[in-house]
Sequence to fold (653 residues):
Amino acid sequence: MTTTEPRRPASRPASRPASRPVSTGLWPRVLRKPLGVAAGVVLLVVVAASLAAPVLAPHDPLLQDLRVVRQGPGAQHWLGTDSLGRDVLSRLLFGGRQSLAGVLEAVAAMLVIAVPLGVLAGYVGGLLDRVVLRAVDVLLSIPGTIITLAVLAIFDGSMLVAMVSVGVLASGAFIRVFRSVVLGVRRELYVGAARVAGVGEARIVLRHVLPQLRGVLLVQVSLFAAATLGIQTGLAFLSFGPPPPAPTWGGMVAEAASLVQVDPWLLVPSGGVIALTTLALCLLADALRDANQERFTFAGAAGPRRRPAAGSPAVEPAVEPAPTGRSADDALLVVRGLRVGFGEPGRETVVVDGVDLDVAPGEVVGLVGESGSGKTVTALALLGLLGANGRVLAGSVRFAGRELVGLSHRELREVRGAGIAMISQEPMVSLDPSFRVGAQIAEAARAHRRLSRPQVRERVADLLRAVRLDPAVARRFPHEISGGMAQRVAIAIALAGEPRLLIADEPTTALDVTVQAEVLDLLRSLQQRTGTAVVLVSHDWGVIADLCGRAVVMYAGQVVESAPVRATFTAPRHPYTLALLRSNPHDAVPGRPLPTIGGVVPPPRQWPVGCRFAARCAFATDRCRSAPVPVLEVGADRTSRCVHVDRVAVSAS
Ligand SMILES: Nc1ncnc2c1ncn2[C@@H]1O[C@H](COP(=O)(O)OP(=O)(O)OP(=O)(O)O)[C@@H](O)[C@H]1O
Fold:
């Protein structure tokens, strides 16, 4: 039966991540601001009146009538006449066309340069970013006023060339602004999620990055337009631009300024319209900035990521271990000697060190271990998603017979989504706040198959039903659904490409306990129905027991034990596994303190030469501390990185 999870009341924010942007349209928010509306109306009137000047102007703006020079406002000439008896209102209307065209030219030149370069530098990064930043430094060091005056001198006073050069010279500052916005968006989880779903880079930029830039872009354009209007007026005031008698706002101000002693009124219409237009542009920029910030204010103050508490599923393994055979030949995923480091090339800090992992088709493998043991980094490395400062230093990741280490972005994209998909810890932040849920599922579905519009709609509805959501949820935005629903949507997106392997990185950590159980139940039934293999990262033995056939225990960047789940629970063969199981909160006895593991996981740069768990281990001897401990076969289909396996076995029994 299809169920729709009710919206979570505000008092239960547990399943909502702290940094979830709320998105509604930008313009509706601007329209709620009286000053923004007033500014917009003024600008519309100014632009419309200038465009309609030939229709609206009561007189010919060039027509001189020396009988009516410097007359104040009256019935014939609403805003009076100038020193040659020309109608001020008509000149103002025609002058607006000239001035606003100049603003438009400068803004267009700035946008044509700043948007592509800012977006590319921020999104692509690396060498391109450095080159663009150096070019910006050069651009910003050029004295703009002198260049503009030189351009006017060279191009015979052409205001078009002057305004384009203003736009070009200003673009440096805007490249930096746009770049920094894109840098932030690039790190958003929903961008990573789109990449994992196999969406192309160009499409990610168009669909996810540019919409996030829109608010900032509009604010900057408004402010730049105001500044450009001032520059344009100033140049016309200095007699650059169209020669007299053609009307311009700047020229009218210059003429009025020369007569200010004898006829101060003349300065009011031209100065007033420039001041009003500039003010309106600034107020509009303010309203846009506020609306944009409100649009991305963070809703709900959810606490820090919570560890699952008692009350989660029972620890007794619910699923029989899948027969894996452990032969690399029939494994879907074969990881050998995976070594991952972060930092400057050549000086990386190794955080995952020689991990081996096999996942058979349809098998569910749990990666378990304390915080910082390298589970997430291992999972991300499988998909080539380590970010700019992380890289695979050694080892191999073979998926369905294909080596993934060393593949290009394009080649990896073929594997992501359709081959391997991922669901993250924070469902809400992996959804783009700007798009409806249905559009995001559709995007993932289309990334892997050519589908017509009706087919896409049908596929989205099917996927929503598969994750036990009402297809009507497709019309909602991420902020209109609860954390549990968001995780189901994230699962639907992951399933859209019908992956053979699903990597689930603590998929229930950010959810509250009841929702956790529902999502786990959903994952289990989907896995059993589709036969998708799963690598499940978790701290929680309850979750491992509930879903997994095999448990792989990690400590300080290494796999310390790997065994079928039932064997792991009943007969652990590594002191760390034993200690973790004994300190499992699900086994807490009321009134008795829960055993804990003394000490902490050593940070990557402080790993000891010998066994990395030795400092915290009750079984440790000098032998453990003197040399690295290799992985040992300790029974059918199981390994342990411990030289005291027999003593551990006795203690565990
Ligand atoms: N981007 C990064 N840059 C530098 N170090 C990192 C980065 N990401 C992770 N690390 C380091 O790698 C180590 C392993 O981290 P990882 O997130 O894989 O641990 P984990 O076992 O998944 O922990 P948790 O359960 O808390 O997520 C940690 O020491 C962590 O500080």
Residues 1-23, 297-325 have pLDDT under 50 and may be disordered. The longest strand covers residues 349-359. Residues 560-652 form one domain.
